[in-house]
């Protein structure tokens, strides 16, 4: 029997391209990665890549972002516990890609409206959904009188971790104590929030 | 009398290059900027630029970062007031460069160890000095029993603003209420910090 055509074969090519992209990112870094090298490594033609991704940046985005879509943490029974778990997931997310990839992707997002829209509707939306879920649980438990602005809560959680790693370039190994303090802060602020 | 040679003339060229770089960034954006265009606009040769800056990225960094070196805010009489003023300065800093320039510079910093060292010793060090000054004033006033870790305080202040503008891409016009809440949070957290 011949293998089925269509989706399954396409999925295999998609996966080969994404795997090759991630491998080359890890080996040579973002700036040195070329579509030629990815095509050779994946065993596909460049046309197969450009049928899927309009630009090199979109190809990298698809390969890296796929693994960065957060799911809500298990219900820990408290807002503080949920925020701690969510922060741990955010840290894992931001430290998983090879060095330099996250800042380079962010610059690409700001240079390409199509990537910006994709970034907001995938990465940001997935994280925002987790933030909302954790806040809604706290409301249901009676820990919060109503749900605070999820955008503000999101900025309070994601921002300091991103700043620590990519702006201040502090030691990632010190993030443990920082995220514990952050979860404490965020829980305190959100429970005290007037609006 | 002839004008003095040496420094003054060099300063004029430095300034012409920086002004041309900023003008072109504002007009055409980061990705489109070329050293040729800057040289033509500044009325200098490309050699004059490359004597000063090893790469295009270093030229842009020098032109943009120069204006982003924070000084401590005036003493407002309280930690909360000082943090509010400092956050307002951080927002002004991050929103001053043309769209896309801050994320592009950050990617450059992560792609070039020389730029990374310059970034840490200028932009980060200037902001960190402001954070330390504001914390030291609070200790002197008796608002804080001792100075909290300045790196953590820095991440708590800078991170959410950066995330709001460049990761979540929320409305910059809404940053006013967000920074007020942030200053409140940071002051509460820092005064409650156990270590």
Automatic annotation (TrEMBL), chains A, B:
Q: Which is one Pfam family of this protein?
A: TetR_N
Q: Specify the superkingdom.
A: Bacteria
**What ranges are recorded for DNA binding?**
34-53
Q: Which keywords does UniProt give here?
A: DNA-binding, Transcription, Transcription regulation
Residues annotated as signal peptide:
none
Q: Which PROSITE patterns match?
A: HTH_TETR_2
Sequence ranges assigned to domain HTH tetR-type in this UniProt record: 11-71
Which PANTHER family does the record match to this protein? HTH-TYPE TRANSCRIPTIONAL REGULATOR RUTR, TETR-FAMILY TRANSCRIPTIONAL REGULATOR
Please identify the protein, giving its name as recorded. TetR/AcrR family transcriptional regulator
């Amino acid at each position: 029997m011949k293998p089925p055509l269509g989706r399954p074969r396409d999925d295999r090519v998609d996966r080969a391209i994404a795997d090759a992209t991630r491998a080359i990112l890890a080996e040579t870094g973002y700036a040195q990665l070329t579509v030629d090298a990815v095509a050779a490594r994946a065993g596909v033609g460049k046309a197969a890549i450009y049928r899927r991704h309009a630009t090199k940046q979109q190809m990298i985005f698809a390969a890296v972002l796929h693994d960065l879509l957060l799911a809500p943490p298990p219900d820990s029974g408290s807002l503080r516990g949920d925020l701690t778990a969510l922060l741990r997931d955010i840290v894992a997310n931001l430290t998983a890609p090879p060095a330099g990839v996250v800042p380079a992707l962010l610059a690409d997002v700001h240079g390409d409206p199509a990537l910006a829209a994709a970034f907001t509707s995938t990465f940001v939306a997935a994280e925002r959904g987790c933030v909302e879920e954790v806040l809604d649980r706290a409301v249901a438990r009676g820990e919060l009188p109503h749900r605070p602005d999820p955008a503000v809560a999101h900025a309070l959680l994601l921002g300091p971790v991103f700043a620590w790693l990519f702006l201040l370039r502090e030691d990632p190994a010190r993030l443990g104590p920082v995220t514990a303090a952050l979860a404490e802060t965020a829980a305190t602020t959100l429970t005290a929030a007037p609006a």
